[in-house]
Amino acid sequence: AGAETVKRAVELDLASRFQESLVCYQEGIDLLLQVVKATKDGAKKHRYREKISELLFFSDGKYHKQIRIEENATGFSYEKLFQEYLTEIVSEVWVEDPYIRQIHQLYNFLRFCEMLVKGPCKVKTIHLLTSYDEGSGRSQQMSGLEEIQQSLRNYGVMLDVAFSSSIHDREIRFNNGWMIKIGRGLDYFKKPQGRFSIGYCDFDLRPCHETTVDVFHTKHTKKM
Question: Are residues 45 and 71 in the same domain?
Fold first, then answer.
């Protein structure tokens, strides 16, 4: 399976489909790492490690894509933005966003977590770094995060929450090397016109605030 995945990665690379090739390279590397762990033969381990080193070299190209979301644009749900980067090897996610405070922001984070639970990734741990609500909404913020934490636990996912008073950057990282930075963080959707208006439930139909989305890929860092 690893060899077939790597072969596909090379084909995509040659076709200049770099984003897809990087995903395949990462999956191929992960499969080969599993083989290394299971192999007791020292010579075979050495050969596999050499092959992985070659793949790390090929998959180490710097990747950057920018998506501009225009004012009132639709069709930018979390699934549309993140799904292609959530491969099966994703098991850990880091979210840095200072504004997971108000009710609608907590719901945004909950929707993001729901997407992770649905797969196809096998997320086991989500790390959230945010800031405290500085007003009367702090108890509401804490109880909301605790409820999300408990609910995720029912699905075998641990939510680790930390707070920082100096956090400004907004970024989301997956342990397969993909990093997404959204200018407005997860809070880029406009308030719906009413509780029974189109776009209230389906975020693909919800108008957005203007923002930019930057997608990067970092070097595979798993140890051999």
Answer: no
